[in-house]
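@channel sequence for tomorrow's demo:
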Amino acid sequence: MTWRKRRLPAARRAVTVLATAGAALASTLFTAPGAHAADSDITFSNVVINKGRPIVLGTGARIEVPLTYTLKTKVKLDDWSVRVRRGTGDNVTMLAIGSIQWSCGQSVAGGYTYYDCDESLQIDPDTLPSGKKLVNSDATVWNTSGLAIKIDGSFDLDLLSATTRLKRASVIAGADASSEPVTKGKPITVKGTLKRANWTTHRYDLYGGQKVTLQFKAAGTTKYTNVKTITATSAGALKTTATAAKDGTWRWYYAGNSVTGAYATNGDYVDVR
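structure tokens (generated this afternoon):
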């Protein structure tokens, strides 16, 4: 696992950080004698991933997730990084395939140098640094570690307290409110199909048995209100009726769960006459 990083904090411009992983080296870093012992001269803190929100991934699109942290050091470093990981020993899996460093402000106080770094992690569900792909069991809490490589080639690896939760993306396909236009006071029928990313098979599967809320936003307003909540069939089908009282937009909203991300449809405008 090698990281190549060019640091230009003064210029404060984006720098790509490339990561390629070898499982053997990843294991060595986490099992080497003293690797878990914190170096009092090097500290990672204030680690925040995705602004504290869960990371939601579909089945193919690479995403960038914000990462901020502070590095405090008394020794000169050649390189450093904060990594999202899960597992221990020979079964450590890293999540990001690389990162982009937007800035890394530097300051000095009390004999320490501080780096306040702002980065974006590059995450691809089809490509992990180990060469594997995400599977459904990866929808869980991931831990973090901070790796600092010193000028002399030695390193300090600290397991950090910061965590992040990985979730499978959901989607509601075929959302539609009909018929339209509709006479005031008459019912409309709203349909849709709830699906969820399957990382193991790399497709979206029907997702049944979930509670999904029908919402309405009246014309000229900006806020959706809840109309009713229904449960998707075993095949993920959504269908309900509602009274058309005024012009406005109807949409489905799924709040998600501990392993599945939330989703809201774009909405379907219905003209009431």
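heads up for whoever presents: The CA atoms of residues 203 and 230 lie 25 Å apart.
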